[in-house]
Amino acid sequence: MEWLAANDSEIARQVLQRGIGAVYLIAFLSTLAQFPALLGERGLLPVPRLIARAGGAIGPTLFRWRYSDGLLRAVAIVGAVLAALVVVGLPQTGPPWVPMLVFLVMWALYLSIVNVGQTFYGFGWESLLLEAGFTAAFLGSNEVAPPTTIMILFVWLVFRLEFGAGMIKMRGGEEWRNLTALYYHHETQPMPNPVSRFAHLLPKPIHRLEVIGNHIAQLVVPFLLFLPQPIATIAAALVIVTQGWLVLSGNFAWLNWITIVLAFAAVGDSAVHWLVPAIPADLGQDAPLPLYWTAITLGATVLLVVLSFWPARNLLSRNQLMNASFNRLHLVNAYGAFGSVTRRRYEIAVEGTLDSQPTADADWREYLFKGKPTEPGRMPRQFAPYHLRLDWLMWFLPLGGDDRWFVAFLGKLLDADKQTLRLLRKDPFGGERPRWVRARLYLYRFTTRQEKKETGDWWVRDPIRLAVRPVNRDDFR
After folding, report:
1. Range 342-357 burial, b when 16+ CB lie within 10 A, else e
2. Cα–Cα distances in Å, from 137 out to 143, 147, 310?
3. What is the pTM of this model?
4. Per-domain residue ranges for the chain?
5. 289-326: burial string, b at 16+ Cβ within 10 Å, e else
6. SS3 441
7. Which residues contact 453 (CB under 8 A, 6 or more apart)?
8. pLDDT digits (tens, 9 = 90+) for 148-191
């Protein structure tokens, strides 16, 4: 079955395996640092409480029968170690079943985490990482050529990711259709970075060109990924360039980073050799695929093709779902982001006081977050591909939805809970318990060039109203 060997895809396989492994490494380290405070035994949304309430309704997870913070940390550490081995390429030096087992274990461990992660793990890139990791399990090792069907499935994944995002925009807010979305998006995106203000202040005609470029990249280019070389490589390069601009201008966790990695599935060794002659054109293996490996990859292909029915139907639906999983294994999902763009940036500021009475003139001090905007004079930082989960949910908070976690968060602040405070950049009370906490709603906008020159500030923030009245420990009893 020589047709099953993609001999022109060795560079693509190396980038896919190591790149996906690198993202898994970041994901497991993020879990190790944040999960206990957010979802652990004493977290904001404790997993034991979820398991007791939901039982068999939650998806497959190692924690179904028992959860402990120690077990969670062990899972994250094992996952991180395996991911690091993939990044340096050690499993890929063995038979093809070795990297397969490593990737399947990483997928199973992270699936266990996501399925109990609740709103803190309810992001589309969690499912994207799971699907990518499962598919990467069947790329084989350095001993065999990459399977053609698996490489095509990776291209199909990129197509769903990009075309799905494009269609959700066209079916979403009118700002994408009238080309005004980026008048607002750089300023109102969940977590701006140092370049976001510069991008926001670009002339409006450039913003309109950005939107046109986005539509071309997401609605036209994905079809070119399936064409012969070198067209497929050119299409992949266009995806990589557009995703690179998103990396430069915002903090979208690992969404753009893993999309760049996945786009390499369409890159051919011959096209790379033409561009960089020093790289050999015949990197791939000529040895035939072992029979057992052929059977495994074809079985995985059939599974993923069957599961593709639901996301393919979703792409054609007028009621297209964004970031939806159609099975509890998070395989072959629907993707998309920012079907509509918020036009004003609202932020919740959390404050506390040591004063006995929560009057307006009390000494209210603000808790400072690592990523979300707080002080007007602080430059936004770059955190992606690392995912600050608490900061992201703080962006969603003014938009409505489930706020149970925020109520619990205020209670943890009143207790000066150490693991919760470690999620923040600064506790204004140095570990001492405040007597009262409250939340205030602000309207933020980037400073103009003149305002920045005069004040040095990055933001202008205007108070809107009190979002949560002052509460103390008695309110939580």
Report:
1. beebbbbbbbbbeeee
2. 15, 11, 22
3. 0.95
4. 2-316, 347-476
5. beeebbebbbebbeebeebbebbeebbeeeebbbbbbb
6. strand
7. none
8. 999 999 999 999 999 999 999 999 989 999 999 999 999 999 99
